[in-house]
Amino acid sequence: MNSMQNNGDNLLEMRDIHKYFGSVRALRGIDFHVDRQEIVGLLGDNGAGKSTLIKVLTGFHTPTSGEIVFEGESVYIDSPHRARELGIETVYQDLALVPLMSIARNFWLGQEPTRSFGPIKLMDQEQMARESAAALEDVGIHIRDANEVVGSMSGGERQSIAIGRAVYFGKKLLILDEPTSALSVGETRKVLEYTYAAKERGMSVIFITHNISQVHAVADRFTIISRGRKLGDFTKADVSEEEVATMVMSGVVPERLRLFDPEAADD
Amino acid sequence: MLAYFDENAGPSTGVQLTRIYMVLLGLGALLVAEQVLAGWIAFGERVNVLRSDINFIEWVVIVAFLLLALAALRAAWSLWRRDQAGWPWSQWVSFFATIIGAIFLMKALLPGAIAGISNLTAPELDILFLVIGLLLFASGLLCYRFVTFGIKVFDEKVDKAQGALSTAVSDMTPGQFISLQLAQSPSAGAIIGFVFIFLVFSFVTDLFLQPTSVGSVLTNVSTKGIVAIGVTILMISGEFDLSVGSMLGAVSVFYMFFLTEGIPQIGLGAMPMLLAMPAALIVAMLLGFINGIILVRTGIPSFIVTLGTLLIYRTIPLVAIPGGRILRYRDYYDEFPQVWISPWVLTLLALAGLAAVAYVAWRLLPGLWRGLQFRLGEISNAVNEGHFKTTQALLAGLVLLVTALVLLVLALWLVMIVAFHAGSGGELIQVGFFDLVNGRWGFSFEQVTGGLFSILIPPGANFRNSIIWWLLLVILFQVVLTQSRYGNSVFAVGGNPGAARAQGVNVNRIKVLNFMLVALLVGVTSILEVTRNPGVDPLKGDGWELEVIAMTVIGGALLSGGYGSVIGTLLGALIVGMLATGLVIIGMNARLFRGVVGAITILAVVLNTLVRRQST
Hints:
heterodimer; A: alpha/beta; 6-stranded mixed β-sheet; 12 strands; B: mainly alpha; 22 helices
C-alpha cells in the first residue's frame, strides 16, 4: 500500500529521478518501484513522462539526477545493452520481432545456439526449432511450426512470442509498451494471459498504457504519472477503474485517496 | 491416399502405381544414362575422334538422368516405407520428368529446335526421342497431378494427427501450392526467369547450348557474380553500395602497382606476388570500411554515401594512370610470374582437404549412424521382434570403416597420379601464377593435369578458374548467410533494425562489416580481373554497380532489406550473363543488352512481389 516501503522484496527502485532535455523538464523527481512477481500498470496521458521514465530505465536516456537500484544494488544503466544484461527486457509494439524471419530465428536472435565443426560454428537449427517451440508451449503459446515466418502472424501472436522469449531467457523485469492498443479483444485477452503466466514464473512486469481498461484485469498496482510527477501508487483493491481513468485524464487525485499517499497530497 | 499411413490397410491403387512408376522411372533413367555413357545414344557431333569420348551435352544428359534416377529411387524408397518424405520427392521427380519429356518432345517434333542435339541425322533416333519424350511427359504429368492432389488429403490427415485444424494448405489448388512453395524461397522469381530464359535461348538457337557459349556466359559473369554476393548480403542488411565499380578500378590499380613498381611516394617497393594479393585485399577492405564508417557515423543514406565514394574512388585510377593509358604488366616485365609447386605439397593439400571432409563426415556420422541403427532395428524387429543386436552393430560398423578406408586410399591414389603426372617423381611443377589464379581451362594447366581438360573442353570454349572461385564463394556465403549467427544478424538488421538492436545485435557493426565484406569481394574480383589479361585501364569497373545491383534484385533480394539469398543472386547473375551472350548469338543488336536487363529487372521485381503477396 505505502508507496515508499523499502523492504527486500523490491526488484527495482528508482529514486527521485529527474530528466531535463535542455529547459524541458520531462521528469521532475519521480519515485517508482516494482516488487518481485508484481504486475505494475504505469499509467499517464500522452506526454506525461511515462515513456521517458522507461527510456531512463532501459538505458536509452541517462537520468539528469536520481538513483536506480536493481535487486538491491545501485546500478548505472547507460545503454540498452546494460539493461539487457541486468535482465530487463522491453517488448515494443513494432520492435519486438523481425517479420521476415521465422519464429525460431527470432526467438534465438542474438544468442543462437551453435554446433561446431572444428573451428567453424554453425547455428544448430534443429535445436533452435525444437527448443523455441517447447519454450513457447511452456508459457501456453501453441505454434504450428517454429519455422513459420513471423510476418504471417497477427499482432497478438507476435507479442506473445516476444513475451515467451523473455520468460525463456530468464529475464527478471518485462516492460510492455502499449502492447494491446492495436489488438482485438480476443488477442488482448491472450496477451494478458501470457503476461500473467510470466508473472507466475517469477517475473515482474511493467505494463505501460494510457488506457486503464487494458490492464485492470491483471495489474496488481497502478502508478500514475502526470506532467513529469507521480500522482501516486494505488493497489487494485483501493481504486476503481473509473477513478484511475479520471486521475489519468485530469491529473488530480481525489480527496478520498490523498490520505493514502502523502506525497501526492503535498503537491 | 488416406490409407497411406494406415499400416493395417493395404495401399490404394494410386499409391501402388506411384511406387511402381517411381521404380520404373528410376531404372529407366539409369538405363538412359548408361546408354549415353556407353556411347549408344549420341548427342551432336563428336568433338574428338575417339568413340569413347563424351562431349559436353552428353555429360549434361548423363548427370541429369543420373540425378533423376537417384531422386526417383529415393521417392520410391520413401513411398515404400510410407514416410512423409515420399510426397515432396515424388512431386519434384515427376515435375522434372515432365520438363525433360517436354524437351525431348520438342526435339523430336521440331528437328533442329534444340541446340546441340540437332546434328543427329539418323531417323531412328528421332523416333527414340519421340517415344522417350512422350513417355516421360505424359507419365510425369499424370504422376504430378496425382501427387499434388494427394497433398490435400495428406495434409488433412496430418492436421488430424496433430489435433490442429489448418486450412491454409489443404484448400489449395495445385497452382496455388506451387506458388506457395516458390514464395517460401527468395529466389522464386529468379528460378522461373532462369528456366524461362534458358529454355527460350535453347529453343531459338543451336549455338546457345554449345560449350563455347556456356563458357562465355560463365566466365563473363563470374567476376561480377562475386561482387554481387557481397552486394546481396549488404542489401539484406538494408544498405547498398554504388561504389563497387569505382572500388574495383581503384583496387585493381593498387594491386597492379603492388605487383610492379610499388608506390614510391610512400616508400613502398614492389612486393612479391604472394604479398601483393593480401595487400590489395587490405586496401579494398579499407575502402569498404570508409564507406561503412561514414554511413554509421553520419547517418546519411547509403545511396548518398556511396554515390560520393563512387566519384571519389574513381579518381584514384584516373589520377594514377596518366593520360588515359592502359597499365599493362608487360610494360614492366617480359615474363609473367611463375610459381613452382612440389607434387608433395599438392598431395599434402589434397590430404588436408580429405581430412576436412573426413572430419565433417565423422561429425555427421553419429546422426547417420543412429538413422541406420533405427532402420536396421526396424528390419530385425520385423524378423524376430528383438532389438538390434550388438554383433550386428559391430559388423555394420566394421563394414562402414573398411569402406571408408578403401575410399580414402583410392582418393589418395588418384591425387598422387594427378600430382606426379607432370614431373617424374618428386620434381617441382612450374605453373604460371596468373594461370593459377584465373587461368583458362584446357590451356593453362596442361602439364599439371596431363591434358585432362583439353579432352573435356573444346578449343574455342573459354572456361576460367574464376568460375570455380565464384561457385566456391557462393556456397561459402550461402552457408554463412543461412547457417551462421552472423547471417541471422544480417537478416535481422535489414528486416527490423530496432528489434535487432533490442536483442543485443550491434547493428552498426554488422553494417560496417558488410561494407567491408563487399569491398573484400571487390578485392578478390580485382585480382581475378587484373590477372585475366594482365593490365588495368582507368575505367575498369565503370557501370558495374548497377549491373551488379540488377543481378541482386533479379535474384530476389529486397531493396528495403531483410530478404534475399545468395543462390538467388547466382541465378540472377546467370540470367544477366545468358542475356549478354544469348542476345548476341541470336543476332540482336548487342546495344540492346542494357535495355533488356532493365526490363528483366523490373519484371523480376514485379514477379517476386506477386509471388510473395500470394503467400501472405
